């Protein structure tokens, strides 16, 4: 495969940082982006990566300008990795509209807006890959993280793929389980300020779970980045396979997807009679259409 140019968001730590190192190790070019890049991305200074300041929550016009700058660096971009994100926590009743909007601005709207910025370039060259970093939380909700989980459910890209495939553009959402990144650190996991006494024990338990889970997650973030690159480049374990529209990564993520699929099939079977009972009778449907 020819040398690819990648643009990756959220590179200050976690998956973003791993992507940069792994992409460069494959001989590809990478534009590493993040907020306050001059200070937060200095660890890439001597790696060969291009560093760019980019806040995905910026207005669309600003993102369009940033994308134009990025496209000029290497004469184009082949892969956009929408990776930036964080976790808002707390029960729904304590969730403020401001916190919900902040979560969606980063995890959903920012990714959609940046995708809009690159699509004219992809359409013109009739090629390009959009990679979204979702989560098993986009398949299974968890108490205390409704805000985050709903943002990952919103990120599913099936409609987008159907709109852009005619232009030769591909998109995929990777859905990792729990990986040993800084996702549960204070920087990326935002605990709510308790406001309702009845949720005090719940919030205490949630905080305890996160603290116990941090640094004990089963997934290796370096291997995650490597497998994502394998899939996009058609190499390694992905060689000879067609790129799917979604892919769980990690044994826990696989279990969540598999269980959800089986539960959904069971529901369809058990409730089929009631589910289809709301259709018009065939003959009446024919009469209405005539």
From TrEMBL:
InterPro entries: DHB_DH, NAD(P)-bd_dom_sf, SDR_fam, SDR_oxidoreductase. The keyword Oxidoreductase applies. SUPFAM superfamilies: NAD(P)-binding Rossmann-fold domains. The keyword Oxidoreductase applies. CDD domains: 17beta-HSD-like_SDR_c. Gene3D superfamilies: NAD(P)-binding Rossmann-like Domain (3.40.50.720). One of its GO terms (molecular function) is 2,3-dihydro-2,3-dihydroxybenzoate dehydrogenase activity. It comes from the Eukaryota. One of its GO terms (biological process) is siderophore biosynthetic process. Keywords: Oxidoreductase. Belongs to the short-chain dehydrogenases/reductases (SDR) family. PANTHER family: SHORT CHAIN DEHYDROGENASE (PTHR43976), SHORT-CHAIN DEHYDROGENASE_REDUCTASE FAMILY PROTEIN (PTHR43976:SF16). This is Secondary metabolism biosynthetic enzyme.
């Amino acid at each position: 495969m020819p040398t690819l140019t990648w643009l990756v968001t959220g590179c200050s730590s976690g998956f973003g940082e791993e992507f940069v190192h792994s992409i460069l190790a494959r001989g590809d070019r990478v534009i590493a982006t993040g907020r306050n890049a001059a200070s937060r991305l200095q660890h890439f200074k001597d790696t060969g990566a291009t560093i760019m300041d980019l806040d995905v929550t910026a207005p669309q016009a600003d993102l369009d300008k940033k994308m134009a700058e990025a496209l000029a660096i290497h004469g184009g971009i082949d892969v956009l990795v929408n990776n930036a994100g964080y976790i808002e926590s707390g029960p729904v009743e304590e969730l403020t509209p401001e916190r919900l909007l902040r979560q969606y601005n980063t995890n959903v709207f920012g990714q959609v807006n940046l995708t809009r910025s690159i699509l004219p370039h992809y359409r013109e060259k009739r090629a390009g890959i959009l990679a979204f970093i979702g989560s098993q939380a986009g398949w299974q909700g968890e108490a205390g993280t409704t805000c985050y989980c709903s943002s990952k459910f919103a990120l599913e890209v099936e409609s987008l793929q159907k709109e852009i495939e005619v232009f030769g553009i591909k998109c995929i959402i990777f859905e990792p389980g729990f990986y040993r990144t800084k996702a549960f650190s204070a920087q990326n996991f935002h605990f709510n300020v308790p406001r309702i006494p009845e949720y005090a024990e719940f919030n205490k338990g949630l905080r305890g779970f996160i603290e116990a889970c941090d640094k004990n997650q089963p997934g290796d973030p370096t291997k995650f980045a490597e497998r994502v690159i394998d899939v996009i480049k058609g190499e390694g374990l992905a060689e000879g396979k067609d790129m799917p529209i979604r892919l769980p990564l990690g044994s826990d993520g696989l279990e969540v997807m598999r269980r959800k699929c089986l539960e959904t099939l069971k529901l369809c079977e058990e409730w089929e009679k009631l589910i289809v009972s709301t259709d018009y009778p065939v003959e009446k449907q024919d009469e209405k259409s005539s």
